[in-house]
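#struct-pred
JK: can someone run the complex with magnesium ion? inputs below
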Amino acid sequence: MAQKQRELTPQERAKVEGMKRSWEQKRLVSERLQRIGKRIGVYSGKGGVGKTTVAVNLAVILAQEGARVGLFDCDIDCPNVTRVMRISEGPSSEDGKVMVPPSRFGVRVMSMSMFQENEEEATIWRGPMIHNAINQFLTNTDWGDLDYMIVDLPPGTSDSPLTVMQTLNLDGFVVVTTPQELATLDAKRSINMVRKLNLDVLGVVENMSGDIFGRGAGEELAEEMDLPFLGRIEMRADYQHSETKPTVFTSDAVADEFHVIADAVRKRLAELDPDN
Ligand SMILES: Nc1ncnc2c1ncn2[C@@H]1O[C@H](COP(=O)(O)OP(=O)(O)OP(=O)(O)O)[C@@H](O)[C@H]1O
Ligand SMILES: [Mg+2]
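RT: done, structure tokens with the ligand placed:
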């Protein structure tokens, strides 16, 4: 005789509902991610070495070269992509649920800052909150079809960059360093950490090369870590003068440097994954 099924307690029902929601979110996230080609993190061991500068200018150059590009600012503690891109509006939404990122210079941009009350506010988030927030962003954002998503990551080897890397399941990292010894030491540490997570490092970019900090340490680091050297960006006053546009638009020399980096990134991605 079939046994009559016991009614679920309210706690059990809540648990089942919670599991259903989490599965539904996982499904939605993986659906969204399938439409996003390569997800590339821009990362460094040390703060202030030029991650945001590289993320923004690389995204814009790839878009100029004809790719469909998204830029996702995941520097949760200190998001400033929107400031550099001069975006004041947030995403638009027709149904109040799905968000469409604003576009600037041919790049679709989302940032954690779009949900902060004011620019000076510092957000201190822990791993599980970051994981949830990023999943929420992914679930609710309609990026459309993208060839590349460039992700601006928080610096260092703490909880927050790690959580972002794992949640987004990034295809590879561009590691930014400056020519100073301390920066390359930190970069080495961050490369090792990415490798521990079984994620790929695409290569090393040396930023702020020139008479002040010297040049060449980025190449040495790449060689030592058995990685491609993706390119060099000279230290220039142009960055301080780019009040209205990313610097690749205002300086041909900078645009040339970023074309070189974009080429190297494409080449490396093709080597790592010849089928795509
Ligand atoms: N090649 C360069 N020449 C001159 N100035 C530069 C260069 N690259 C970056 N800068 C400037 O250095 C400052 C720091 O750069 P950026 O904000 O990109 O670093 P970051 O690594 O993203 O910093 P954070 O760790 O705080 O997020 C900015 O004012 C930027 O304009
Ligand atoms: Mg930054």
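RT: quick notes.
The first strand starts at residue 36 and ends at 43.
The chain has one domain: 42-272.
JK: thanks, will look after standup
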